[in-house]
Amino acid sequence: MDNEYQRVKANSLGINLSEETTSVWTYVNDHCVDFLNPFYSQISYRLQPDCDLASIKFWKEHFLGWSEIIKDEATNDAVGPFDNKNSVFVGYINKYIDKQKELQKQIRDLQPTKE
């Protein structure tokens, strides 16, 4: 059962889940060797992420991939299906896309020209 309401309801029907069900953790603890990662190796140092702004990359495929937003191929703007709560989000996406285009153009402008 996922919550207290379901547990109370089951108890009112005469089902005592704590006595009639086994936790998955009982199995995992009894078979912990089966769940060990054979490729794990302990390290003596702490991993330190590179937090320099130049190193941070926004993964739009990952962070925006869950959205049902469809992009207009001609303008690359986000278009429907939307409701009011998504319209603010769409505005942020379009601003992000515009900023990305602007930065890509700046990068191209900074690259040396081939003569």
Would you give an account of this structure?
The protein has helices at about 5-10, 15-20, 25-30, 60-65, 85-110; strands spanning about 70, 80. It folds into two domains: about 5-35, no CATH class; about 55-110, no CATH class. It has a two-stranded antiparallel ribbon with strand order 1-2. It has about 120 residues and is mainly alpha-helical. The mean pLDDT is about 75.
Kindly state the number of beta strands.
Answer: 2
Shape verdict = elongated
- Major beta-sheet overview: 2 strands, antiparallel
Q: Which range does the strand content fall in?
A: under 5%
Q: Into how many domains do the coordinates divide?
A: 2
First and last CA, distance: 70 Å
* C-alpha-based Rg, rounded: 26 Å
Largest sheet, spatial ordering of strands: 1-2
Task: Please outline what is shown here.
44% of the residues lie in helices and 3% in strands. By secondary structure, the chain is mostly helical. It has two domains: 4-35, no CATH class; 53-110, no CATH class.
Provide the fold topology.
Elements lengths: L3 H9 L4 H4 L3 H7 L29 H4 L6 E2 L6 E2 L4 H27 L5
Antiparallel strand pairs: 1-2
